[in-house]
Amino acid sequence: MLHSAITNSIMVEVIPRYEDIPMTGEHGRFVFSYTVKITNLGGGHPQLLSRKWHITDAEGQNKFVEGPGVVGEQPVIGPGQTYIYSSVCPLKTEFGRMQGHYLFYCGETDEHFQVQIPAFTLEATFKLN
């Protein structure tokens, strides 16, 4: 299912997926991937500087993940351009939720601004049958 939000002329679309990969250890037993598509619907050349995720599992445990860029990059997204990346989120439970925001900087206006990442659910598909 596609989840989307538009903030400050930046559209963020997310598609989460359950990956049927057996895992053990402290990071979790259930692996979810998600693909994010970020499109600049406005002008300027904003640069994605950092991200902050709020992840909640089915037991109500919260985890915050923040840092520079995404997948090791800090892309500049020009007018009409799109940047796409994929990442993973391991959880200890078969259900969870993610949401967050990106911090952008636009050199043309010399301003920082946040862009919402829409909330989305992580669901192990074998639990839905």
Describe this structure in words.
- It is elongated, with a radius of gyration of 15 Å.
- It contains no helices and 8 strands.
- The protein has a single domain (3-128), classed as ApaG domain (Immunoglobulin-like, Sandwich), CATH 2.60.40.1470.
- The strands form 2 sheets. A 4-stranded antiparallel beta sheet has the order 1-2-3-6, with no helix packed on it. It has a 4-stranded antiparallel beta sheet with strand order 5-4-7-8, with no helix packed on it.
- The relative contact order is 0.29.
- It is mainly beta.
Annotation, overall tally of beta strands: 8
Largest β sheet strand count, sense and barrel closure? 4 strands, antiparallel
Strand content is: over 45%
Helix share, percent: under 10%
Number of helices: 0
Instruction: Round the mean pLDDT to the nearest integer and report it.
Output: 93
| CATH architecture label name | Sandwich
Low-confidence parts: none
Domain count, please report it: 1
Q: Report the CATH superfamily.
A: ApaG domain
CATH top level is Mainly Beta
Distance between the termini: 17 Å
| Spatial strand arrangement across the major sheet | 1-2-3-6
- Tell me the radius of gyration: 15 Å
Q: What is the global morphology?
A: elongated
Helix and strand composition category: mainly beta
Order of helices and strands: EEEEEEEE
